[in-house]
Amino acid sequence: MRFAVPVFPGSNCDEDCAKAVREILDRPVDLVWHKDGNLDAYDAIILPGGFSYGDYLRTGALARFSPVMEAVAKAADKGKLVLGICNGFQVLLESGLLPGAMRVNDHLKFRCSIQTLRVENNQSPFTGLYQAGEEIQLPIAHGEGNYYCDQETLDKLEVQGQIIFRYSGQNPNGSVAGIAGIVNRRGNVLGLMPHPERAIYDWMGSSDGARMFQSMLRYWEGMHGAA
Amino acid sequence: MVQPEQQTTAVHVVERVTDQEPTPTQIRDGELFQEVGLNHEEYQQITKHLGRLPNWTELGIYSVMWSEHCSYKNSKPLLKRFPVEGPQVLQGPGEGAGAIDIGDGQAVVFKIESHNHPTAVEPFQGAATGVGGIIRDVFSMGARPVALLNSLRFGPLSNSRVRYLFEHAVAGIAHYGNVIGIPTVGGEVDFDDSYEGNPLVNAMCVGVLSHDELQKGVAKGVGNPVIYVGASTGRDGIHGATFASEELGEDAEEKRPSVQAGDPFMEKLLLEACIELVKKGILIGIQDMGAAGLTCSSAEMASKGETGMELDLDQVPQRETGMTPYEILLSESQERMLLVVEDGREAEVQEVLDKWELPSAVVGRVTNDNRYRIRHQGRWVADIPVQTLVDDAPVVYRTGKEPEAYRQNAGIRVDQPSVDIHPGEALNQVLASSNVASKRWVYEQYDHMVRTSTAVRPGSDAAVVVLDGLDKALAMCTDGNGRYVYLDPQEGGAAAVAEAARNVVCSGARPLGITDCLNFGSPEKPEVFWQLEGAVDGMSEACRQLETPVVGGNVSLYNESKGTIHPTPVVGMVGLVESRQHITTQAFKEEGDLIYLLGETFAELGGSELQLILDGKVSGRPPKIDLQREKKLHQVILTAIQKGWVRSAHDCSSGGLAVTLAESSFDHELGARVEIETALDATTYLFSETQSRAVLSIPQEYADAFQRLMEEEAVPCAKIGEVSGSCLTVEVNGQQVIDAPVKELKSIWEGAIPCAMNASSTN
């Protein structure tokens, strides 16, 4: 299974994501410059956190026009796995690969802390190794993680099992229904505000994020074999 | 390579660039040099150096180069007293940042710098650009920045303007570090009336490089191109260095245009591009355009290279039209870097800069005649001997005078509280003090985990950052106590170094070296100069004894608005953790572990948090420091940690033993049962801030071995209790004086700052 991590000007978690893939999965991973419009060689794409284009205009609003995003849409269409973390989630929303929009945190401040999340759906390619309803610890670090969608969309997300993670206990940004991460209808595109790549060893404060990468690998290689 | 013709005769320099500029004679006759912060004597020196009257552009160049900020003219004689050498030092003071060997061919690069005055008038941008500047200092050395810290001083949060300054300064620091993607892992915040009109924002950056990547800010090789890269030049920040070198007056608000605006996104691109150039090995010299902008970077590079330089200002990327040479040269627009590369390799550099879509231009050439020449629209607008800007900058030898207050303080007793207060009540009050209270409100706004290397996050004694591919890690912290230094500069200066080292040691690291930021009032006041001198002496002695040389730093004088700030030297310390297994935090971890207090406790409440709370001010003498004992303490703590005996280690500082115990309890909400025998009264014992002490928790199976080590090394060591339950209980001489649920204490400690910040903005 081959991973790509697109790098936009202003991405700053690209190396961290690549490190997680290398160290946890021991699979090949390449950083792909945003001007590269071809991701055909990869099975999974991780859109990293950071401040693409300085988050000028709106978070993720400029990155969606990068050539690499056409390739990401194509990959999603082919059923490859797409994981958008933090700024990556914001880019997925702006590009329409996931429904909804992001607002500034309701307390108006950037927040960096380790949060408790509840795994709402463990049937996705990203969460197969978690227990349904399990509480896990993942770090967040964002100023705009206040997920919003209209009632109709929310109802659909709920009914179709697209809400993958919810904040448990304290909601750190005011997101609708405590949403921390959602998938598309098909289930192969996950966007979440917390950072699984920052929680892969106990010394980081939590190692619960490792299973997200392991879940992706198990799902993919279960379907396509270890290639 | 073709050698350019050497110009031995001075070029013809225009008298003025525009009709708006004063002529050289008008400058002399109207004494206009005073407007840019130069005095008569300095003006005379300039005319002597040039052999003629300076024009307005040249005057501007001298004024920023000879400002305290760039030339250290008031502090240079004192800074020479710092020990700057050691077997581990690769680069001492004089470059963008210092560098220390950490083995395996790697080095740590770090520096701290102030951005006090900009923050006082425009807190968000002022603080943000302080962070941006210190990051550039570190990556201009060729290092990859891996961590940020900051040391903040503000007035009391009961003041609404202080809340505004504090909130926006923190947001500015957060914004810059978060966007650029360097974790802000530690630092400190302290509040005191003396900083009300003049807050302190000191930012520190730590980077890592391979020895062969170490860069220098030199211009060498006659004919080599000088390349400008980064943001275009605007009119922002003109005379920022001069502004930083004068007192904040009533008109400070008008100086808002002296404050630069930062763009961390641009700096992220600049950072990646520069690191790529370093890895390619193309650069001969690289220097940040920081204080005094293009002028300072280019002049210093030429001076260090013992060459000369010619710049053509028409080539400088500009974001505004009609800028004069004076404005282009003195602009402090952010996110700019000056490079010198080998002639003919411009295209290779261009390729990297184009990838990152960075504006760049060849703006000049290195010459061999030691002249600093500036051309603008085909005319020469400045022609100055390089060394007169840097090496021959004036030095002011001042003498200090012992302040009246220092003499008076000698007679004030501080061996017991001025008011009778029960230890339990005292603990509640001290934990609620904004100085001691949890700084979570601050550090939660900083991304402290990006780069996934942060092993000890903010809130412990020192932060610890692991090194990729190595078992080693770096511990780092900032420390300084303005109240101690105010009461006794020498003891306070030494204590700042000692506490920083102790913090690093408690995290499992061997202290390597320091960077310092000397925040003081006006050196023209003999009492302030006396403070500066004493603090430098105290710090120097501690650095010598603890073998932590000073590898760089910054001086911020003229910190005055309605009065003089407490003299506040801030120490940024970096230590090396030999193995990740040695990483230690302050938190109690297992019930049944034994609690030991290392070091002796004396009745020392001068300058203490308790004294400040009870009296509303500090007085007397601060705690004394014995550097030999301090060093011994570090050795035994480190040995015990490296042997694997230590579950937690926390140094005793603000708030004394009581606060140390409480803070160790908070992380895992694990209580402690403590019993103490002492000749002192309970409150004095628990809140004294005697130096060279630490509280360790040790698993029972290692207790004997641990105690033996302490006996062998003759370090005073008392078993004072056990980690236990969910309450903190303390008995002194058989009498219970503290008994409180940890949860309750923690909520006081965590609630203080959020509560103060949510106060109505109308009072």
Automatic annotation (TrEMBL), chain A:
Major site of localization recorded for this protein: cytoplasm
Quote the InterPro entries the UniProt record gives: Class_I_gatase-like (IPR029062), PRibForGlyAmidine_synth_PurQ (IPR010075)
One Gene Ontology MF term: phosphoribosylformylglycinamidine synthase activity
Residues at the catalytic site? C86, H195, E197
Pathway named in the protein's UniProt entry: Purine metabolism; IMP biosynthesis via de novo pathway; 5-amino-1-(5-phospho-D-ribosyl)imidazole from N(2)-formyl-N(1)-(5-phospho-D-ribosyl)glycinamide: step 1/2
| Catalysis: reaction(s) | N(2)-formyl-N(1)-(5-phospho-beta-D-ribosyl)glycinamide + L-glutamine + ATP + H2O = 2-formamido-N(1)-(5-O-phospho-beta-D-ribosyl)acetamidine + L-glutamate + ADP + phosphate + H(+); L-glutamine + H2O = L-glutamate + NH4(+)
User: Which is an annotated Pfam family here?
Assistant: GATase_5
Recorded hits in PROSITE patterns, A to Z, give: GATASE_TYPE_1
Q: Which domain of life is it from?
A: Bacteria
Q: Name one GO cellular component term.
A: cytoplasm
Question: Main role?
Answer: Part of the phosphoribosylformylglycinamidine synthase complex involved in the purines biosynthetic pathway. Catalyzes the ATP-dependent conversion of formylglycinamide ribonucleotide (FGAR) and glutamine to yield formylglycinamidine ribonucleotide (FGAM) and glutamate. The FGAM synthase complex is composed of three subunits. PurQ produces an ammonia molecule by converting glutamine to glutamate. PurL transfers the ammonia molecule to FGAR to form FGAM in an ATP-dependent manner.
- Record-given protein name: Phosphoribosylformylglycinamidine synthase subunit PurQ
Which organism is this protein's natural source? Answer: Melghirimyces algeriensis
Q: Which gene encodes it?
A: purQ
Automatic annotation (TrEMBL), chain B:
Q: Which gene encodes it?
A: purL
**Stretches assigned to the PurM-like C-terminal domain:** 222-376, 590-726
Sequence positions that bind substrate:
S114, H115, N116, H117, R136, Q260, E332, S333, Q334, S556
Please state where this protein is localized: Cytoplasm
One of the GO BP terms on file: 'de novo' IMP biosynthetic process
Q: Which reaction does it catalyse?
A: N(2)-formyl-N(1)-(5-phospho-beta-D-ribosyl)glycinamide + L-glutamine + ATP + H2O = 2-formamido-N(1)-(5-O-phospho-beta-D-ribosyl)acetamidine + L-glutamate + ADP + phosphate + H(+)
Segment forming the signal sequence: none
Q: How does it assemble?
A: Monomer. Part of the FGAM synthase complex composed of 1 PurL, 1 PurQ and 2 PurS subunits.
Protein name as annotated: Phosphoribosylformylglycinamidine synthase subunit PurL
Q: What positions does UniProt annotate as the active site of this protein?
A: H69, H115
A GO molecular function assigned to this protein is: phosphoribosylformylglycinamidine synthase activity
Q: Which Gene3D superfamilies match?
A: PurM-like C-terminal domain, PurM-like, N-terminal domain
Q: Which family does it belong to?
A: Belongs to the FGAMS family.
For this UniProt record, the keywords arranged alphabetically read as follows: ATP-binding, Cytoplasm, Ligase, Magnesium, Metal-binding, Nucleotide-binding, Purine biosynthesis
Please give one Pfam family short name. FGAR-AT_linker
One term under GO cellular component: cytoplasm
Annotated PurM-like N-terminal domain ranges read 94-208, 459-577
Q: Which domain of life is it from?
A: Bacteria
Q: What is its main location?
A: cytoplasm
Known function:
Part of the phosphoribosylformylglycinamidine synthase complex involved in the purines biosynthetic pathway. Catalyzes the ATP-dependent conversion of formylglycinamide ribonucleotide (FGAR) and glutamine to yield formylglycinamidine ribonucleotide (FGAM) and glutamate. The FGAM synthase complex is composed of three subunits. PurQ produces an ammonia molecule by converting glutamine to glutamate. PurL transfers the ammonia molecule to FGAR to form FGAM in an ATP-dependent manner.
CDD domains registered for this protein in UniProt: PurL_repeat1, PurL_repeat2
Binding residues for ATP? Y72, K111, D516, G553
Species of origin reads Melghirimyces algeriensis
Tell me which residues make up the Phosphoribosylformylglycinamidine synthase linker domain.
34-73
Pathway field: Purine metabolism; IMP biosynthesis via de novo pathway; 5-amino-1-(5-phospho-D-ribosyl)imidazole from N(2)-formyl-N(1)-(5-phospho-D-ribosyl)glycinamide: step 1/2
EC number(s)? Answer: 6.3.5.3
Please tell me where Mg(2+) 2 binds in this chain. D137, D288
Locate the residues binding Mg(2+) 1: E113, N554
